[in-house]
Amino acid sequence: MEKKKLVVIGNGMAGARTVEEILARGGGEQFEITMFGEEPTGNYNRIMLSNVLNGSYKEEEIFLNPLSWYEENNIRLHVGKRASGLLRRARLVYGEDGVPEPYDKLIIATGSRAFIPPMEGATMADGSLKPGVFVFRSLDDCRKIAGWAQGKHSAAVIGGGLLGLEAARGLQNFGLEVHVVHIGGHLMPQQLDSGAGAILKSSMEALGLKVHLKKNTSAIIGPDRVLGLRFADGGSLECDMVIISAGIRANWEIAAGCGLTVERGIVVDDQMRCPDDPNIYAVGECAQHRGHMYGLVAPLWEQAKVLADHITGKNTRAAYHGSKVATKLKVMGVEVASMGVVEPQTPDDEVVQFSEPKRGTYKKLIVRDGRLIGGILLGDISKAAYLIQTFDRNTPLPEERLHLLFDIGDPPKQVTFAEMSAGTQVCNCNGVSKGAIVACVNSGRRNAKAVMDATRAGMGCGSCKSMVAELVEWACGGDTEEDPSVHYYVPGVPLTKPELIRAIQERNLKSVSAVFDYLAGGREDAASKPGLASLLKVLWKGEYEDEKDARFINERVHANIQKDGTFSVVPQIPGGITSPAQLRRIAFVAEKYHVPLVKLTGGQRIDLLGIRKDDLPKVWHDLDMPSGYAYGKSYRTCKSCVGSDFCRFGLGDSIALALKIENEFQGFDSPHKMKLATAGCPRNCSEAMVKDLGAVAVEGGKWEIYIGGAAGSSIRKGDILCQADSHEEVLKYMGRFIQYYRENAKYLERTHGFVVRVGIDNIRAIVVEDSEGIAGRLDREIAESKAAYKDPWKDAWLPEHDNQFASVLPILQ
Amino acid sequence: MQTMSEIRLGPLGIIPPGEGRVYSVDGEKIAVFRTRGGEIYAVQAECPHRGGPLADGLVGGSTLICPLHAWKFDLKTGQALFGECGLKTFPVSVDKAGQIILLR
């Protein structure tokens, strides 16, 4: 097959990188590649220019692709030749010498040039820059600046952005007195806010730089060479040279000249293609994607990959969705990290800030809904790697904000993965070590779920899941493959929870097998069954068509399976309130069935352990008590302290409230178990503050409702949802939260994870303030679920199958 | 060489679709599964990991999940989907009269 002709206009970092990516995808076989480069060299690292200027690097040290690289890869490079024209109809690019170069596919990577703000005297009559005036964009600029600076006394840099400061730093090395003239109120406005800018200014001045803020340069003085600057406010400054570093402008002329859409840059779609011509792509600083233009390398690398995937056909669905911009850099020895926005954008955005101007340290984070949307670190950037990663991945922040800014205090949170020995056990349930996880990643499993499936790490209590996921990312070196099923409600049905609920309701699917038939192409997935059963029960209540095989064994036989295959039976004892008659009955059952262990539970109930499956119906019959649901992914129980009847500290009747709560929510299916408690005073004897839901009586006849507490494999104090004036109000708000959790949590997501993920403020707005207008519906759903409640232990009289509780079937010959 | 004999376990209808049940054949416990897709499988009754009762597990397609620690097995081959220990499998079928026939 004849190779197609690929022409690349521009041999800077974007153009050359894109060609590298194309070659890496076998593009050398598909394309005959020709490049135009205006500069007389191969591609070099433009970011390092300031290091060349200040003498810490030699020119040849910053080359990325020497001319030999082009030869080795069969790339024809028109070196030192600008592309001057483009004929789309004829698919021809013209070099400035007029020679045409035909193409099948074209990539425009023309980059940008320095912007010269309107001012008098910057240029001479012929349009060239006045002697002594420079821009700072290329190796050639570097050489000219260095040549002029010899023996001069002072220099001015117009523009206090990153590049301007770097140029200033470079000039200091020539022994010049260097002034930075900036039109804005603080330095580096792209990366810093005014507070950080002020501190940076002090640091710069301590290094000998003269910084002039809010100075609008109106003219460069001097008839045939630079003598000084004049400002709009009437002031002036004498200097021997000027470097203009006041921003960049995209080089889009060649695109505009042939009718391609150009705004601030050349407009491209998610495949980096020009919308007007499927054969033309643009990449790098000249491209404008979804209204954004990027001047940093990281976004450019991402664009180059997508472009290469698409143009080579390696992945025609590859798409660039824009970049989250974060930078870490050193300005004249001062370390700076910056990401996202520099100021809060809405009144609800949270600002976490620390400022120590004397030591040149400044830290500021902007948080929205528990996630980082922007941040600045100046002076001390030790937390930058963690914060940039968190920002980039949009992961929820820990509650304790202080740790975001500092490594302080008590036992160090965790050793880094690099420091961790290979033998360190990461999953304590299944005994999986760091070494085993890393080996699994190296064997080709590149996402957390695949590694967890293969090693069983994180598949026990689940508390190490996030650590396993981080370790996998670390072991992949950031090159993880996304597993789309993490967004699904259950792995076997490719829908998120809201999509799944909509599909189930639209198609009236009332059983798990129907869901697989209609929404998963008939493919059953064993692990997805219990999650679907739980959701269907929540949605359809009494109308749900129960299929026992979809339920985990505990829910099939309404008891909790033990390590030897026997079961535990926990009758309902709400609030921990029992009676002598009940205790006698329990004692009788325990003796009759030779129960090997009778134990009080953490939920103030009595557990009969070691019961054979075959005996379960008889045990329930003899107990004649309702199920306590100690086995389900459901409402479990509500424990209580003594409350106000006997306790001398009691402020509210916690026992009566616990009984009402149990009566309201008993048996409710939910994404994970829900353990509740009520406390009669803030002494919190029943630990209500660390329950999934808790109510704590406070002075004045009120109750504080806590949600999202945990005291199991994770420990967390719940957040206060609201205060309630009565038992009935407690039931109302608890019910709404429970229903909201049932409808929106992922399967096996406990309330503490859910509350952190969604945010207590959001939940309060919806549940208490009814911001979405769904409170009435949530109340109705709860009422319907309550009405549909049936005690499952009645199954003792009506088992679904004759052999539902048989541990071994007889052979019927 | 040991010869295999046919054992009639009883009617298929006794096992609810998607579930498993245990039979004791000459003192050996064997779990028999009837999938919703209409397949029938027979494997050893106890999980090789910690002796979990496999017949109480979840079945989807030919995948079985042990109820104790969620070990996964392929019912067709007996192979563990992770780890090395697999399950002993037995040829099993249903005759025209709807009876489960196990070869052992």
Characterise the protein shown here.
The complex is a heterodimer of chains A (813) and B (104). Chain A contains 25 helices and 41 strands. Chain A is an alpha/beta fold and 813 residues long. In chain A, strands 5-2-1-9-22-21 form a six-stranded mixed beta sheet. A five-stranded parallel beta sheet of chain A has the order 11-18-12-13-14. A five-stranded antiparallel beta sheet of chain A has the order 24-25-28-27-26. By secondary structure, chain B is mainly beta. Helix content of chain B is 0%, strand content 41%. Chain B has a four-stranded antiparallel beta sheet with strand order 2-3-4-8, with no helix packed on it. A three-stranded antiparallel beta sheet of chain B has the order 1-10-9, with no helix packed on it. In chain B, a hairpin with a 5-residue loop joins strand 3 and strand 4. The mean pLDDT of chain B is 91. At the A-B interface, helix 13 of A face strand 1, strand 2, strand 5 and strand 6 of B.
Q: What is the number of E strands of chain A?
A: 41
Rg value of chain B: 13 Å
Query: Largest sheet of chain A, order of strands side by side?
Result: 5-2-1-9-22-21
Count the E strands of chain B. 10
Rg on CA atoms of chain A, Å: 34 Å
Question: Which blocks of ≥5 consecutive residues of chain B have pLDDT under 50?
Answer: none
Succession of helices and strands of chain B? EEEEEEEEEE
Q: Please tell me the overall pLDDT of chain B.
A: 91
Distance between the termini of chain B: 13 Å
β-strand amount of chain B: 35-45%
Report the total helices of chain A: 25
* Secondary structure: helix percent of chain A: 25-40%
Order of adjacent strands in the largest pleated sheet of chain B: 2-3-4-8
* Percent range of helical residues of chain B: under 10%
Q: Largest beta sheet of chain A, briefly?
A: 6 strands, mixed
Short description:
With 813 residues, chain A is of the alpha/beta class. Chain A contains 25 helices and 41 strands.
